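Hi,

I'm pasting everything inline rather than attaching a file, because the server keeps stripping attachments. The sequence lines come first, and each chain or strand is labelled.
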Amino acid sequence: MARTSGTNLRREILDTTRRLLIQDGYQNLSMRKIANAIGYSATSIYLYFENKDNLVHALIDEGMEKMQQLLLGIDNLLTDPLKALRELCNRYVAFGLENPEYYEVMFQLHPARMARYPVEKYRKARKNLEVFRDVIEAGQRMSLFREGDALLKATAVWTSLHGLVSLLIAQRVDQQIAPEDLQERVFDQVVAFVGG
Amino acid sequence: MARTSGTNLRREILDTTRRLLIQDGYQNLSMRKIANAIGYSATSIYLYFENKDNLVHALIDEGMEKMQQLLLGIDNLLTDPLKALRELCNRYVAFGLENPEYYEVMFQLHPARMARYPVEKYRKARKNLEVFRDVIEAGQRMSLFREGDALLKATAVWTSLHGLVSLLIAQRVDQQIAPEDLQERVFDQVVAFVGG
Amino acid sequence: MARTSGTNLRREILDTTRRLLIQDGYQNLSMRKIANAIGYSATSIYLYFENKDNLVHALIDEGMEKMQQLLLGIDNLLTDPLKALRELCNRYVAFGLENPEYYEVMFQLHPARMARYPVEKYRKARKNLEVFRDVIEAGQRMSLFREGDALLKATAVWTSLHGLVSLLIAQRVDQQIAPEDLQERVFDQVVAFVGG
Amino acid sequence: MARTSGTNLRREILDTTRRLLIQDGYQNLSMRKIANAIGYSATSIYLYFENKDNLVHALIDEGMEKMQQLLLGIDNLLTDPLKALRELCNRYVAFGLENPEYYEVMFQLHPARMARYPVEKYRKARKNLEVFRDVIEAGQRMSLFREGDALLKATAVWTSLHGLVSLLIAQRVDQQIAPEDLQERVFDQVVAFVGG
DNA sequence: TATGAATGAGCGTTCATTCAT
DNA sequence: CATGAATGAACGCTCATTCAT
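And the predicted assembly:
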């Protein structure tokens, strides 16, 4: 029985999968659980996604695009690199904390545990890193930032941000530490490092 | 059939579990496999560990202690904080990269997704952070490092290191980046931040 | 969308099914695969065949007819029974070995395990046997063959040929035995038996 | 709950599997069906057989041994080859008709549809053929049978018998033909061929 | 202390088929 | 004439766990 208009089920599957990912994590994600959660038979999922990997891939894809739009939405991205870098950090972390389900599949999943993430999607993933790199390069051109391999610097920055998001999501940060304090401190570290 | 004195089986289970964990990853860890590997029946494990979660908890516990010993084994830990900080970073990352699967279980497993990790074990995990804090405090006392909340700084440092290890383990670092370069850059960032 | 004139789809289904059958075997034959292969929806098949069994029955039917035509195409079928008998054997075995999966469905599928194979189709299957019988009878009339119940003799001949094809298809013949040798030996046996 | 003494379940599984094989054929044999039929959980089967293939292999093995004992039990096997050959045929066919479930997995299963039947079991399978060969050789030594490659002749004989059994089991023999008549005719054919 | 026997729940996936349009 | 949407049943198999001994 068709409950909603056709292609909406695809959306519903994706959304429910995200919800379950937050709740139970990737390890405990199962096609049946998704199906039950949306009130359809497990078989139905296969009408919209070839298999579990494909479903997760689609989710990763969405996440990458969302993050990219968020990062590219910054004002004066290349004209005010100092401010932009800080805002990049802000938005990256905000995205992670607000979309932990995306974040987990996007960045914490070991590729060996999934069918290889298709090459063309990796390109999309890399775009995010390139935003950081471009901003750093812009800052370098304007002599606001120290010289040095911009991609490497971008990756180092990303490393810190990723650590921050990961620990906060996994609730591994000591309770005595206020997340906002830590976040600010990490941003300081990052900005200081890129050189302001 | 009692092959060895009683409590040794507990040890054997832990050692084998760790080995299997490092070899095959958490996803592929199963009670049956552990039992087979040590040549006992699966049932026997339950004589020493209430369930799988408990066993894994005990393992995390041991991992934390191992890492602690590794970190505390540094020469002149509190007398040469500058060198010590860099060596702390070195050893932390080395531990993570040498035991990737182990590291994942220790730091990436979401506590809410396992039976609650007992509070007193969290204290042990915290010990590692405290080593970083103590070194930073020592440096501050010797006026080698900038002032500021040492625990917070330690956490920020840890954040970067954790990010580094996580990304490398998950093989998410761009192929154009040499891991050693990235590592050095992150260490620089950390040391610069703590202020040398 | 109607791509070709109506009843041609039935033909297309049958042809494709046969192709898939020969390619992948009965076990791997599925309605969805057939549908995909012809570029129609799975549902469409049901417009022409009540269910999978029916489709396969129709295919068996066609196979029987094909074989019959093959057998009836022999020159001087009833005028030179000696040569004809040997050629019958030749063609029967060739058909089996060239279409092993098809052969299996035609002769090895247990009728009780499919929806009852309609009686009138059995008649068509019987036609093949009758070709053998007719040739034997012709030979008897010409005093080339020994007397005796021709249908029974035909069945005995068929028995040997079927055994030969079956064992070769199932790859159960000892590797030391060259298939051609075996085939010749069996033909000799058959011809000798009918009595030349 | 242990209903019967331990190792009897293995027996029960094997027997039930045979029963189901007659009923539904290999294609429709499933672990669940077996489990249901014996009133145990599907999981339990895996305590006694590593997987479905292993279970079927065990069955094939049993069948081979049974048949071998049956064939080797003939009196004066090598001293009265003429009688022995006919009795071999008798017993072979009798075995097939009385144990169609064994027969199906033993001789009709295409190896590609199962995990490769282990090599050492193939040896056992070959033993049956060798009984035929040995009798033929004995007859040749006593100048009772015509000369010629005994293994090839044995295989040709087997071919006919296999065809007979297969068609009878699959109920493909025309209803006008009395099975006993056909059987006798085939035996005549065989014996005549080996040369008496 | 240790085990053999057993299980219920679950996994991803495929299948033939139905039904409203 | 043809389909898109959907499903229930089944598949082989693995898992953590229990329980009587």
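Residues 30-32, 42-43, 46, 51-52 of chain B lie near DNA strand F (CB under 10 Å from a C1').

If the labels don't parse on your end, tell me and I'll reformat.
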